[in-house]
Amino acid sequence: MQTLQFEHGNYPQMFDDLLRAQVPDLEMVVYRCMDGEYPARAGECDAYLITGSKFGVNDGLPWVDVLEDFIRQLWEHRMPLVGICFGHQLMAKALGGEVGKSVKGWGVGVSFNQVVMRKNWMDPWQEKLDLIVSHQDQVIRLPAHADVLISSIFCPYYVVQYGQHFMSVQGHPEFCKDYSRALMDLRNGAIPDARLREGQASLSAAVDADVMMRWMFNFLAQASRTDMSG
To answer: How many CB atoms lie within 10 A of CB 158?
Structure first.
């Protein structure tokens, strides 16, 4: 994993590059929750993003429990939040949903998904959203206040919105195909061979990472305006 970080950067670096393409003067603060770093209060930042993680939301780690509690604080204070993969799952769990191992096994490579509920922040509009994934866990029971926006047979709760301020996605818009390929190579043996071959083959498909990043920015901008007017 250290080699992958050296070649591709860590998750905050990946998002920093992509978000600055949308907002060049963005001020991004990174909190390393696994090292005990958290915002002092919910309003410390204008909006929040929880990235993916090599750890699972059900691993019983103390820092995950603290982060889960902070998510509930953000919900109570109506602070804008987007979650990615691990963040997507922890948001659902924090609000009363359930996360567990997918009965379909590992999700790797490119996932192919359909928009089932359109929102006005989905601009530019398209009816599908195909992204790179890498996960065993997924949301298996939704909490209250959840609207499923994008879905697939493999992952029914792929993009979810809660109220006007929380939105999350199971896929990784920050992953490039080379990173996905290297991650699958690293997990060779842990992932069944047939699934690995499917995942590697799927990387020939186009992905909608740029669209998802634009949608994320649109959502956070709209949620911030809603918070100021609320």
So the answer is: 27
First to last CA, the chain: 43
Distance (Å, whole) CA 109 – CA 228:
39
As annotated, the active-site residues are 85, 172, 174
- The angle subtended at Cα 202 by Cα 198 and Cα 204, nearest 5°, is 140
Give all strands (DSSP E) within 37-112, no chain letters. Answer: 48-50, 81-84, 98-101, 107-111
| Domain at 2-229, CATH homologous superfamily | Class I glutamine amidotransferase (GATase) domain (3.40.50.880)
* Residues 223/164, Cβ–Cβ less than 8 Å: yes
Note the pLDDT tens digit of each residue in 88-139: 999 999 999 999 999 999 999 999 999 999 999 999 999 999 999 999 999 9
Contact 167, 82 (CB under 8 A): yes
Q: What are phi and psi of 200, to 5 degrees?
A: -65, -45
Higher pLDDT, 61 or 17: 61
What letters, b where the CB count within 10 A reaches 16 and e where it falls short, cover 47-58?
bbbbbbbeebbe
Return the sign of the alpha-carbon dihedral for residues 190, 194, 200, 206: negative
Is pTM beyond 0.85? Reply is yes
